[in-house]
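sanity check this fold:
=====
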Amino acid sequence: MATDVVLETSMGNIVVELYNDHAPRTCKNFATLAQRGYYNNVVFHRIIPNFMVQTGDPTGTGRGGQSIYGEKFEDEISASLKHTGAGILSMANSGPNTNGSQFFITLAPTPWLDGKHTIFGRVKSGLRIVQRMGLVKTDKEDRPDEEVKILKARILEKDEEV
């Protein structure tokens, strides 16, 4: 049974489907952090048009956040999963085996990330919201001029509609 998580953002709702079979530890980390309220009121601190939107750092700096396993945990790279287009859910990192709580959603194909970032899901609904986020005006450090944030992240109940 696939796990769906809804990201209630300041721009609208995004539902992501987690790839539990391909990245079980990563999916458990993400779902548990969502359940604990870890992602609530966390900003998208990095937005790069035609590339990705990044969030998951409670400090909002891009340098913070930690996993349920401790500060960092190892990659779960699956050769069968690729960054083929918009809507891929993938872990942000600072090198091999440095996953924490930060993640990004792609806005376009990003094949240079294949084998370097753990793909652990995809956008199931709300891709237009993600694409609109990608158009938000940013400064020279790719920080949005206006705050875009996850208001609440939660596990979607089995028969729940968003």
Notes: The chain has one domain: 3-155.
